[in-house]
Amino acid sequence: MAALQLEKQRGRYAALAIAAVVIVVGIPLWWKTTETYRAWLPFSDISELDTLQLQLSVDIEVVFSRGTLTPEQQKKVPLSHVSEKEHHIDEADLSLHMLSESSCGSVVVYVIPESSTLLPEDVKVYVGQRRTALLRSPPFKSSWSLKEVLSSLDVKVEQVVSTMSFNHQDIVAALSDRVRMTKVTKESMADSMRAIKSSPGYEITFSLLNPDPKSHSLHWDIEGAVQSCIQPLLNKLAPIANFSVDSQILYYAVLGVNPRFDNSVSAYALSADSLSHVINPVEARLGSNAASSNPVLNFLLYVPDAHHSPLFIRDHSKREVPSNAFHSPRWGGIMVYNVNEMYGPEAERPVDININMAKVMGVFLAQLRLMLGVQHTHPPPGFVLQSPGSAGLADWELDRLLWSRSVENIATASTTITSLAQLLDQIGNIVINDNIAQQVSSAVTSLQSAVVELEAGNLAFALQYSREAILASERAFFDPSLLHLLYFPDDQKFAIYIPLFLPMCVPIVLSLLKIMSEAKQKRAEKQAKSD
Amino acid sequence: MAAHRYGLSLVFILIFSLLAHPSSCDTLEKANDNTGEKQSVSDAPQEVNTDGSAAVEDLNERQWQSTDVEVDRSDGTKDSETFTPAAAKDQFQEELVIRPLHSGDIYASFQFRTLWDIDFLQEGQKVSHYRLFPKSLGQVLSKFSVRELHISFTQGFWRTMQWGQPFIPSPPGAELWVWFHDTVSDVDGNWKELTNVLSGIFCASLNFIDLTNTVQPSASFKPLGLGNVTDHRFLRYATLPREIVCTENLTPWKKLLPCGSKAGLAVLMKSEKLFHSSFHSQAVHIRPVCQDEQCTSKAWELRQTLNVVFDLYTSGQGKKEWSLFKMFSRTLTEACPLATSSKIYVDITDNPEGELFELTPATPLLSQAVVLGDRRTYSVYDLTRAETFGQLRSLNLLLRWKGDSGDMLRPLLHAERYVAGFGLQTGEIHTVIYNNHPYRAFPVLLMDSVPWYLQLYIHTLTVTSKSRDNKPSE
């Protein structure tokens, strides 16, 4: 009897010990080993990004030249620099630029007296190649205090700055992905849809289309032309993206439409409505870069065949386009180059033709500027803009591009990061590796630094940070390991675990119940005994 | 001049919000200014819906915009008279070799060759400007530092006993072998990316090539082009025997040619006839060669070859008569204007007096060459000359068999393989190699790449020659 009791006791202890091991060691171990690895992500920072406030500030320097302020007004103004210069307008611009080397993103406005002869009569503002502008001061009385003088200048200076730097429309257009455009002009909408989306690199391809190699043997010095015309512009745009240029010649490339012969000018004409069908058959042969995934900008030069020469393009108002070229938003452009005047009917076929690259590159350069987002500025009347010069791009035009690019980058990067965070939050089964967490954190810190730099007005740093942010966010978002979704629906989980755990748990649970009922019985007996 | 610093910061506060508030746009502003350089988009204001979709549609119609640029009117037309083009650095040659086979079939082999005096692998200088060489292949060569590339797509089996030796042998399915440059540090990574890019260019599923079916032959291959060091670490070889070749692979292959399929010999390549044949193989071979005899500088050679054997019986009629029209359903009208030489060669070695077959139209040009160890005579049709096309301005070669076929060709070396038995226990693979030379012995190197799911037991390998067992050495 006592042996039986001992046995029972040992049995009870054994069951309790097994139950303890299962509960204390087994369940946590099973839980830990079946959870998915999710590295920590800065979710709080990312939710902050959601309601981001962007503050853009431009450093503006206003310089008053001699004769604009009366001596009393001058006295009130703290002197920091006085110097005398008397130059022609272009030289003035250059020497003024050398006077104070303006950093990226800032604007310097020089106010010159009303009666000055430096600017022609009706021109109120002259915007230079660098970041300077000359402003003819509005008339004011010499009895005005300094404050009144400055307030009257305010409006003018604001106009200048909005032309040279950025204005509300540009920024809203750049953010058009994220922010609903409330009131947009057709111009800015067209502008925003024309420029190619921001990307870390671009491929630019020049293609010469020769549909008739039997009649024309074309030669173009594309290498030299790219070196002298396109490369300076691309060098200047280097902070925005990496560019790579190549070229090819496609033979027997015909356009998708048959041009109609126009008797009035005895030439063939392509109407503007048929332009969208022109590119179709050629596009299959253009090819993108086989070895990279950057977006491609195609520039085609089409030399019409001998039977369809000369070929002109008509715009919507049936007038001939002087440059004989057209472009398509976010794709590229095409120019038609007529060679029928270069040889007579008795020339031996195929005729050797040398293409005048200067003319062609001028058109392609203008198209490239439009594709990259260097918008046409519509300055208010009375403004005169200096031509961009050899680089093809004025400094302040580059600044405009940088402003809209950095804002666009910040917008895209924050969209990407917030949607990634949402996705990872909602689907609890995706494995988040360490490298993804690291990319996300670096993207978030880059975004925050970019916003800070924009506020401080350091445009170059802001662009750099925004580029880093967008690269890191894209890499994190498109990482192939995020697709590895461990899919465990609930009923399948039951189907897997029940055959394993149920046979094991049933004896344990039943013995625990038995122990509990015996203990209850004993207590009841003890209770009865004590009574 | 008094100057003072007047820092004015324009403060823009924009609030990002996920919720978009649709607002009603009443009218768009008229964009009608006509000052200076402007877009030619000028239209009347329009009523717009709440989300501005009508504005977008309207813009889409007018998406193509003319470029307004101030152009210099002076064209310089006088220059063209004194213009002499610089010597071209690349040239293109095309040829077609037709060989009538003794069994009555006919073997046609196209070769398109582009030679370019440039160096893809030169340090610092990126090749970007292409003329006759296809840009897609050039970019692939530069990016992956490829020294030699050989890829072939074959459908059908080459019957060596009946047809003799092919000009360029190729196994059925897809075959790719590449020599990389010495400067490559991660050959396997480059190989993987290269196969994926090539599968895009040729529209074939070469992406199935991975490390499980790639081999690095240490003795069988040597570079066919220039190359001092043959370090086999930079060689990779892979085959996909079950890859099917069809029109989808022919079209991108034709796209690589400078004249496309619009002029020259390539007009003959129509897929409905080409694939209705016993054997069809298209290949691309790229290798560096010497520019001149002294080999002072490198040039790159791209050869695109297409070998096809037309079967007498499957092409109907049964009459032993072949013509370009019957083979390709096309005749030739002109040579490719970009080609420096464009010729058709017909093998008439076995027909010196015309007793075996008759060839029309007659041609005075003859050429002799040593091909695969044999001296062969060819009738040449030069397509760059206008008189080849005769009065009808089209060339349709006609080959009519007169006599009976002579004795069968005995190729010197050929190999066969067959499967015997079944299953893992009793299955066997037999490879038989024949040497038909009267007195000479040849050393043979056999490379066999076995897929991982086929378990071959090396200890069961037996080598038999002249019905005597050869014990394999270690």
UniProtKB/TrEMBL annotation, chain A:
InterPro entries, A to Z: PtdIno-glycan_biosynth_class_S
Record's subcellular location: Endoplasmic reticulum membrane
GO biological process: attachment of GPI anchor to protein; GPI anchor biosynthetic process
Organism the protein comes from: Labeo rohita (Indian major carp)
Keywords associated with the record: Endoplasmic reticulum, Glycoprotein, GPI-anchor biosynthesis, Membrane, Transmembrane, Transmembrane helix
Keyword set includes Repeat: no
Pathway connected to this protein: Glycolipid biosynthesis; glycosylphosphatidylinositol-anchor biosynthesis
Superkingdom classification of source: Eukaryota
Protein name: GPI transamidase component PIG-S
Keyword Endoplasmic reticulum appears in the UniProt entry: yes
Membrane-topology annotation of the record: Multi-pass membrane protein
Short name of any one Pfam family annotated for the protein: PIG-S
Segments passing through the bilayer: 12-31, 494-513
Family the UniProt entry places it in: Belongs to the PIGS family.
Gene Ontology CC terms: GPI-anchor transamidase complex
From TrEMBL, chain B:
GO CC, one annotated term: GPI-anchor transamidase complex
UniProt keyword terms in alphabetical order: Signal
InterPro entries attached to this UniProt entry: PIG-T
Biological process, per Gene Ontology: attachment of GPI anchor to protein
Protein name as catalogued: GPI transamidase component PIG-T
Signal peptide per UniProt: 1-25
Annotated segments matching region Disordered: 30-50
TM region(s), chain numbering: none
Extent of Polar residues compositional bias: 37-50
